[in-house]
Structure formats: C-alpha cells, structure tokens
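[worker-b] picked up task from shared queue
[worker-b] task type: protein-ligand structure
[worker-b] ligand name resolved to nicotinamide-adenine-dinucleotide; SMILES cross-checked against name lookup, match
[worker-b] sequence length check passed
[worker-b] input payload:
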Amino acid sequence: MNYYPLFLNLKGRPVVVIGGGAVAERKTASLLRAGAAITVISPSFTPRLARWEAEKRIIAHHRPYRRGDLDGAALAFAATDQPSVNEAVAREGRRKRIPFNLADRSDSDGFIVPAVFSKGGMTIAVSSGGKSPALAKRIRDYVKDNLHPEEQRWVELLAQIKRILISKKVSPPKRRAILNRLAESDGAILYRKGEIQAANTLLLKLSGLRRTDLSLPAVTSLENGTTRGKGIR
Ligand SMILES: C[C@@]1(CC(=O)O)C2=NC(=C\c3[nH]c(c(CCC(=O)O)c3CC(=O)O)Cc3[nH]c(c(CC(=O)O)c3CCC(=O)O)/C=C3\N/C(=C\2)[C@@H](CCC(=O)O)[C@]3(C)CC(=O)O)/[C@H]1CCC(=O)O
Ligand SMILES: NC(=O)c1ccc[n+]([C@@H]2O[C@H](COP(=O)([O-])OP(=O)(O)OC[C@H]3O[C@@H](n4cnc5c(N)ncnc54)[C@H](O)[C@@H]3O)[C@@H](O)[C@H]2O)c1
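[worker-b] inference finished, payload out:
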C-alpha cells in the first residue's frame, strides 16, 4: 500500500487513544512529544501511562471503549488487543471522518505510523508501508547512528540563511538555487572537521551573502559547539 506521508501539527489538538497496553503507550509517547491533548480510554493502563495520568499529562478513562468516544477528536488510535474493538473504533472514525490508526492491521484504510527519529530541526521518518515495522525501525536506527550532530547545526544555519534571503527579497528561483547548492555542498563536513575558515568561505561564496549579513546568534553559536575555530564574523 502506498500511504501518503505527511507531518501533522498536533499542538493542543484533541487525540483519542483506545487501549492502554505497550502499543498504546508508544503511540501516546510520540503524541506527547507533538504536544497533543491526549485522552486514553482503556480498562487497564501500563505503569507509564498511569504515571502520565497522575502527572496530568494525559486524561485517562478507566473503562472499555464505547461508541461516541471519538467525538471531537482530530485523530484516533485503536491499540487494543481485541480486533472487534479496534474495528469498532475504525467504523466510528469512518462515519465521523476522523482519521484513525489501527495497530493490529498492516493494510489499514486509516493512517499508519512510521519509525521516527527527531533531533534539532531534523526529523527522520521511515515506513515499510505495513510490510515490516521491525525493518523500518532498523533502517531508522541506521540513519540515526549515521547522522552527525554537526548535521543538526547545519540545518539551523541553512534555516538562518533562508530567512535572510527571504528578507532581502532575493527572487524565489535564485533562493532555491542557492539553498540547494548549500545543501549539496561539503559545508557540514568542513564544520564537522573543524575547518571553520574553509566552511565559512564556502558558505559565503555559495550564499552570495556578506559576512555582516550573517552576524546572527544561530550562526555565531557555531563557535560554542564541538567545532574549533573562530566561527563566522
Ligand atoms: C514503526 C512503528 C511506529 C509506532 O508504532 O510507533 C510501528 N510499529 C513499530 C514496531 C513494531 N511493530 C510490530 C513489531 C514486531 C515485529 C514486526 O512485526 O515487524 C515491532 C518491532 C518492535 O516492537 O520492536 C508488530 C506489528 N505492527 C503492526 C502489526 C499488525 C500487522 O502487521 O498486521 C504488527 C504485528 C502484531 C502481531 O504480531 O500481533 C502494524 C503497524 N505497525 C506500525 C508501526 C505501522 C506500520 C509501519 C510501517 O510498516 O512502516 C502499522 C501498520 C500500524 C501502526 O501501528 O501504525 C514501531 C517502531 C517503534 C520504534 O520507533 O521503535
Ligand atoms: N502496531 C504495532 O506497532 C504493534 C506492535 C505489536 C502488537 N500490535 C498489535 O496491537 C495490539 C495491542 O498490543 P499491546 O502490546 O499494546 O497489547 P496489550 O495486551 O499490552 O494491551 C492491550 C490493551 O487493550 C486494552 N483493551 C482491551 N479491551 C479494550 C476495550 N474494549 N476498550 C479499550 N481498551 C481495551 C487492555 O486493557 C490493554 O490495556 C496487539 O494485539 C497486536 O495486534 C501492534
């Protein structure tokens, strides 16, 4: 199945999780990271879910799912060990046009959740489309292990440059060309090796910006990290 990948802003949005076991706990953990307003409904809860309830990080209803539980939800997750209950949640989602996730199906007509790694401004999401979640997890771990911390600084730097180019009203095609050139360059590798001067020269050359344009905190903060040298001036 070719699912459509996207990144949702769930900050403050109501999300319902049906089930209180290991899988519900994992889905809830990632929903908490996204800042969703989470209600978990289940007769039993893992210790971690119970702790989140005690800490008021989630709302918990200690009872089985019943029709109507999805009312007002932006998203719903069915993660019980009862296929008939999960299917009932899906039916309610379909009827009310609330996107739903079925944890016990690999060919869901709802949405599926990828294996995710997120740090700094970069998120890596890997999906096998339901074929092998274990493999998606392994590939995510491989990318994670090979993503150098300097890459995360590089993202911040490119974000700064993008904002400067927009504020200077550089035309969109020119902006795109500059930012693609920078993303494809060896800049991150040079910073990683501590070759700050060479990296700065490359960055200024490719961006077409002047040194004075880049006297921004996120850029100069390169001086404070693992890299040595004088940073950008
Ligand atoms: C990525 C991750 C995200 C998350 O859940 O947060 C996720 N599963 C993870 C782990 C994992 N899941 C399973 C194993 C055991 C090994 C294996 O089976 O491979 C492991 C590995 C482990 O536990 O170590 C078993 C399993 N999973 C599903 C079924 C039903 C079925 O296949 O029929 C069964 C059989 C149940 C049974 O045997 O009864 C179904 C789904 N699991 C998905 C996502 C969606 C597809 C994503 C995709 O393919 O891209 C989908 C379709 C629906 C959904 O849940 O969204 C998360 C990584 C967590 C992390 O980040 O570390
Ligand atoms: N998607 C995945 O990543 C993945 C991974 C492993 C297993 N699974 C599937 O997900 C299911 C759940 O896995 P688990 O390890 O969390 O199981 P679990 O046994 O730890 O938890 C099941 C939870 O469902 C709750 N529940 C049972 N009936 C309910 C009802 N009527 N209303 C609300 N909650 C109810 C139980 O109280 C319990 O909290 C498995 O049966 C399996 O099919 C999915």
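[worker-b] attaching auto-annotations
[worker-b] DSSP finds nine helices and seven strands in the chain.
[worker-b] releasing lock
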